Amino acid sequence: METLTLNNGLRMPVLGIGVNHVPSAEVGPALAHAFEAGYRSVDTANTYLNERAVGRAVRDSGLAREEVFLTTKLWSTDSGYTRARAAIDRTLKRIGTDYLDLLLLHQQYGDYNGAWRAFQEAVAAGKVRSIGVSNFNPRRLADLIGRARTVPAVVQVERHPYFQQRELRAFLEPLGTAVEAWFPLGHGDAGLLAEPLFAELGRKYGKSPVQVILRWHVQDGGIVIPGSTDPDHIRSNAALFDFALTSEEMDRIALMDRNRRFHNLPEFVEGIVFQAMRTDYDRKQR
Ligand SMILES: NC(=O)c1ccc[n+]([C@@H]2O[C@H](COP(=O)([O-])OP(=O)(O)OC[C@H]3O[C@@H](n4cnc5c(N)ncnc54)[C@H](OP(=O)(O)O)[C@@H]3O)[C@@H](O)[C@H]2O)c1
């Protein structure tokens, strides 16, 4: 598995498997297929309600804990220093691990600066190796970075050929912050997957359109966490490292950017809805 060196010197696999919306009972089989296919990175979150199952799947895999890069996310209702501190400990217990490889603050609402202080402390205490944020707009990201001792190692955002996040990437590049794509396949959008360019490049390289899209992400310096519970998809999504797109082909994909997101809730709605979410994750998951 290829890795990328983060701005704290630690390495992260450029490909992982995402388990959003995967019920706990399906996490074990999906991760067993993924580990078999060579994945060594898993992306979950408190709100996915499957962290216990992820922890079990890692233990059942027979892989040493250090061989698996484990990411999870704290929800914004657990922001603020005191709440975040307690939520980190509960999360570790729930997953059944001594440390997380990457902890992300899932949303930009609430007292995110207080949460970030708890994140930095968790790194110092050895509970977390790398820290980052998800779904922050540039203004809140700049506010957090301006007050932080530790610059985020990773920023996880929606990113795919229709929404390439060029401005965010340019802002983060001098900080060495890696950009990790959620919805790397546009959440499986049929129109995106059927773009003639991906079929053309797929024919040239003997690859599927999905493999071409995922290859574009990693070759462009990004990290991807495609979601799937289909064993064939899981396997084929990992076959990205035996071909390379030319720079002209990369440029043609860059031209597909059209500022089109698949997640479209306005910020003021998100702020209200997300802050109203309940956080009794321990009770809710198996
Ligand atoms: N930070 C955040 O706020 C946030 C938000 C959303 C997601 N995420 C993370 O990002 C991960 C990925 O997001 P996502 O799963 O929603 O979107 P995605 O990876 O862009 O797309 C997943 C969809 O594509 C299909 N698919 C996967 N591989 C395929 C293949 N080889 N051929 C055809 N279809 C394929 C899947 O169906 P099958 O199951 O049939 O393969 C599924 O419907 C999540 O699991 C989560 O970890 C984070």
UniProtKB/TrEMBL annotation:
It holds the Pfam family Aldo_ket_red. Residues 18-254 form the NADP-dependent oxidoreductase domain. InterPro entries: AKR, Aldo/ket_reductase_CS, NAD(P)_OxRdtase_dom_sf, NADP_OxRdtase_dom. Gene3D superfamilies: NADP-dependent oxidoreductase domain. GO terms for molecular function: oxidoreductase activity, acting on the CH-OH group of donors, NAD or NADP as acceptor. The active site is at 48 (proton donor). Substrate binds at residue 106. The keyword S-adenosyl-L-methionine does not apply. The record marks 73 as: Lowers pKa of active site Tyr. This is Aldo/keto reductase.
